[in-house]
Amino acid sequence: MYSGTALDAEKLNNDQHVRNWGNCPTEILILFFSHLDLKSLSICMFVNKSWLGAVKYYLQHFELWREMVEVTIPNKGVLYKEKCALGWREILFNFFLWRKISKARVSHYTSFHVKHVKSMKVYKNELIVVLDNEVKYLNMVDTSCNKTLHVKCYSYEESDYLVTILSKQQNNNNNNKSLLIQNKQYQSDMQYCDVFNLDIIGCYKLYSNSCYFIDSSSTLWVAITERHNYFSVKAVAKIYKPVCVVALHVFNQKVYVVTKEGIMFYVDGLQFKKVHHISYPQLCDDADIKLSYRLPFPFNDGCVAYRVPANAKWEISKSHQFDKIIMAVPRLSALFEHGELLFVGYEDGKIEIHCIDKILQCQNEPQKQFYMRSFVYDKDGDYRIQALDVYERVGRHYLVVALENNVHQMFIQLKQR
């Protein structure tokens, strides 16, 4: 079902020679596995229990768990690891469990008592939520508040290397935004890179040890923590005409931007090249960048989803030149990509979980769907999905859902092998 892995494993399992191999001593299997690359080893893990045990032993003995994660999980598992405090071995098997999403049971786990969330992001064992006049670090286990920062900002994010704070420029009557980037790896006092003015849109993307952002001249910059904790800022590429960038996306170190006019570009050397041009309802000129369901949602490798009115059709198409997916989704309000899955939120509180491989084949049938109104009650009847994120513990998976009046943690019970 996913990336051909399960299908390939099934073929191997049905082969008479492979069934005989299942009775081989572990030492022989390991000798055989030593001639395979890690991608092939990941397929062998799904043949039978004997092979799974042998692959586990092989990876543990040669300390290859991290390398296996990097070749198996999209983005080399970089973004995946920031959603939990697990080791590489546990990350890999948690990732494999998501492949059973079609048979998962969904239940309400707990609620965080916060309202009017501007943005949120799971980092390790905490949920970072931006409210009107403060930023809270909420404990994902017991929902307690670990830390409160009295900062007024639009967004606040953290990775293993950097902290970013996007806020309105002080003493400025325009809509300019200032982006503060903090280097967590600096050994003495925190090193800051301040201040970058982002006119109107304030568009940036935090990606592991890098932060990409677009300035008012349509130039893409990157601030990066490199070896020896050296912090550098450099220009990457420039669009040589006035555009308004509303979304920035990074996938496997490829950088994509989407403009207000619906044009998606990708970075090729020092230039932007057009991927496709989508036709969606004109975006409002409001410069407020709080959680908005009106913006396009780039995902995967050059794909994009955008909201259309309720009476429109759910459509998937491919751009002619680059064979990239364009999704027109009625009443779309939130979208979140995690591993091989795409979580889609709607204005009526419905959540769909899609397999990205299926979407790339232009199939829009979700693996799982449910409505938030089936689990929680909102006195105002506002169940619109504001934002989605994922948190993981060993063998346990949670979906974090932001509504207007609360943030909820849903337990996704996935059957163990």
Largest sheet: 4 strands, antiparallel
Mean pLDDT across all residues, rounded? 84
General shape:
globular
Beginning-to-end CA distance, first to last residue: 16 Å
Strand order of the largest sheet: 1-28-27-26
Low-confidence stretches: 283-293
CATH superfamily of the domain at 155-289: TolB, C-terminal domain
Kindly estimate the percentage of residues that lie in beta strands according to DSSP: 35-45%
CATH architecture of the domain at 155-289: 6 Propeller
Given helix and strand content, the structural type is alpha+beta
Helix content: 10-25%
How many beta-strand runs? 28
Plain-language structure description:
With 417 residues, the protein is α+β, with helices and mostly antiparallel strands. Among the domains are: 92 residues, no CATH class; 135 residues, Neuraminidase, CATH 2.120.10. The protein has 9 helices and 28 strands. The strands form 7 sheets. Strands 1-28-27-26 form a 4-stranded antiparallel sheet, with no helix packed on it. The chain has a 4-stranded antiparallel sheet with strand order 2-3-4-5, with no helix packed on it. A 4-stranded antiparallel sheet has the order 6-7-8-9, with no helix packed on it. Helix 3 packs across helix 5 and helix 6 runs parallel beside helix 8. The longest helix is centred in the N-terminal third of the chain and has 13 residues. About 3% of the residues have low confidence.
